[in-house]
Write a structure and sequence with these properties.
Shape: elongated
Structural class: mainly alpha
Number of helices: 2
Oligomer: single chain
Number of strands: 0
Strand content: under 5%
Length: 51
């Protein structure tokens, strides 16, 4: 039985290819996008609020 969604061959997204971001991979960029400074982000990380 096939999965509900299949990706056509040749797209570079075969089995075992990671497509989701790692936990916290984009956190700093997102915090900057909402106006937080790097120091504020570091404080959130230090306090265990973010990963």
């Amino acid at each position: 039985m096939l999965p509900p969604i299949t990706v056509p061959a040749g797209t570079g997204r075969g089995p075992g290819t990671r497509t989701e971001p790692a936990l916290g991979e984009h956190t700093e960029a997102l915090l900057r996008a909402v106006g937080m400074t790097d120091e504020q982000g570091a404080a959130l990380r230090r306090d265990g609020v973010i990963a």
